[in-house]
Amino acid sequence: MNLLWTSQALVTAMDGRPLGQLPEGIGGISIDSRTLQPGDAFFAIKGEAMDGHDFATAAVKAGAGLLVVAEGKLPALGRLTAPMIVVPDVLAALEKLGMAARARSDARIVAVTGSVGKTSTKEALRCGLSAVGKVHASPMSFNNHWGVPLTLARMPADCDYAVFEIGMNHENEIRPLVKMVRPHVAIVTAIAPAHLGHFQSLEDIARAKAEIFEGVEPGGEALINRDDPRFELLEKLAHDAGVDKVSGYGENPEAQVRLSNFVLHADHSIMTAEVYGQEVGAKIGAPGRHIVQNALAVLGTAQLVGADVAKVGLALAYLVPERGRGRRHTLHHPSGTFTLIDESYNANPASMRAAMALLEATPVAPGSRRIAVLGDMLELGEHSADLHKALAELITETSTDLVFLAGPEMKALDEILPSDFHAEHRATGDELKPVLMQAIRPGDVVMVKSSKGIGFSKLVDALIEHFPDAAGNIRQN
Questions:
Q1: Does residue 9 sit in the same domain as residue 76?
Q2: The domain spanning residue 167 has which CATH number?
Q3: Quick one: 412 and 461 in the same domain?
Q4: Strands 5-6, 423-426: pairing kind
Q5: Which distant-in-sequence residues (6+ apart) come within 8 Å of 163 by Cβ?
């Protein structure tokens, strides 16, 4: 087992109290007994819904090398004989360990935020930078008050690059997290009406995202979407936070990382860009205009962290869409096959537009249909009805043939779509499922998009179960 941390380093970093015979060290860190690997340290974090201490026994049975537990919970764990490190607060201990990981690292650190494209950009950075060094990056969307310190604590001492996604629903959430990460490069992908229910305006969202600049290391740089209308505000906020070097990426003529040309295909894209004066070409393994924009951020970041930009660009050919973020499945219908595009992870007006563009760019055979399956966009507050209604124009300007809607917020869209447009609305995804399954025909392209809380990932799972993957694969997590 390769040691991530020695036990002594854990005790020192967290100012903990060892209890029992600690192992030499641990190979990983887990907060979930279901996915824990033998030899991992299990951190018994208390969340809003569950307390990790309730799963300490399960963690031991799964092979945990040691447990990190709260002093106040120790009496309830009296029967456990596993080695432990006892701390006043487990989450605070994880934060201390994360900061210790950052302190010991010589890696070039990148932090990504934005209303859309955070995870996709993070994954594209992981893919591209892996061609030129050892990369550590957060799994899935570990971008909140426990996900960021957990990703930091898991950072190997010998990685060359590390990429962190930092998210927020409210102001003052990014600030403490980025001060742990201390990036050399901070990226802001775009400002969009996500979580608008918690803010007064898009400018307020931009100010909250700009908290990322406050943690940038001295001499570090900011890379901001130059096509975003709030670029100048973000640039000013970066300078106000002490970041002297600010660059832009996009199609804007003034962007230092500027898109020169691109061609979109159903399953990939080809692009060329001027990257700080150097022409770079890339084939991107994941399709979509929004992915091209993410790739610009990757190429710009590669230059800023001193990587070989050409090699990073070539590596983007191996980028694969993630579950819920554009992953495609060719599924068996009794009379042929059809294509499923899984965009079920999250949704806001900007990502809806990107998903509809992805559907539009996917070719269909004569007589087959493009089908959009859309669920509620959450956290839009008083703007929700208007923003859902605005999707009508987006849909009708494409060649989408059928629309299936679910959720109370989508009722506003259903009521405004033209009467001659074929649309079906149901209260929930479960109620929509049989209607959708009956409608699908061979050759169709079906795109599923909603906010995560609507549970459309279950709808995707049901489709894959009912119409098996044509390649014989099961869904990848």
A1: yes
A2: 3.40.1190.10
A3: yes
A4: unpaired
A5: 110, 111, 112, 122, 125, 126, 129, 135, 136, 137, 138
75 and 130 in a single domain? The answer is no
- Return d(Cα 153, Cα 58) in angstroms, integer: 22
Structural domain including 204 reads: 105-318
Give residue-wise pLDDT tens across range 27-63: 999 999 999 999 999 999 998 889 999 999 999 999 9
d(CA 113, CA 365): 39
Return the structure tokens found at 254. Answer: 């003034």
pTM of the shown model: 0.83
Map residue 29 onto helix, strand or coil: strand
448 within 8 A of 358, measured Cβ to Cβ? no
Region for residue 159 given its phi and psi (left: phi exceeds 0; alpha: psi -120 to 50; beta: otherwise)? beta
CA atoms within 13 A on the CB side of 112: 29
Convert the pLDDT of each residue in 447-475 to its tens digit: 999 988 888 999 999 999 989 775 544 44
What span, in angstroms and rounded, lies between the C-alpha atoms of 198 and 378? 11
Q: What are phi and psi of 436, to 5 degrees?
A: -65, -45
d(C-alpha 454, C-alpha 342), whole Å: 14
Q: Which helix (H) or strand (E) holds 42?
A: strand 41-43
In a domain, 231, yes or no: yes
* pLDDT over 90 percentage in the chain: 76
Spatial contact of 400 and 356, defined as CB atoms under 8 Å apart: yes
Furthest-apart CA atoms within the chain: distance in Å: 72
Q: What is the DSSP letter of 212?
A: G
How far apart (Å, rounded) are the C-alpha atoms in residues 346 and 352? Answer: 9
Same domain, 109 and 199: yes
Q: In whole angstroms, what is the distance from residue 34 CA to residue 40 CA?
A: 12
pLDDT digits (tens, 9 = 90+) for 318-359: 998 878 788 889 999 888 899 999 988 888 888 898 899 889
Q: Are 378 and 451 in contact (CB under 8 A)?
A: yes
The CATH number assigned to the domain holding 26 equals: 3.40.1390.10
Indicate the length of the chain as a whole number. Answer: 477
Same domain for 306 and 188, yes or no, is yes
Q: Residue 337 corresponds to which amino acid?
A: T
Edge-to-edge strand list for the sheet holding 66-70: 17-19, 84-87, 66-70, 41-43, 29-30
Angle between helices 90-104 and 174-181 (to 10 degrees): 40
Question: How close are the terminal C-alpha atoms of the chain, in Å?
Answer: 25
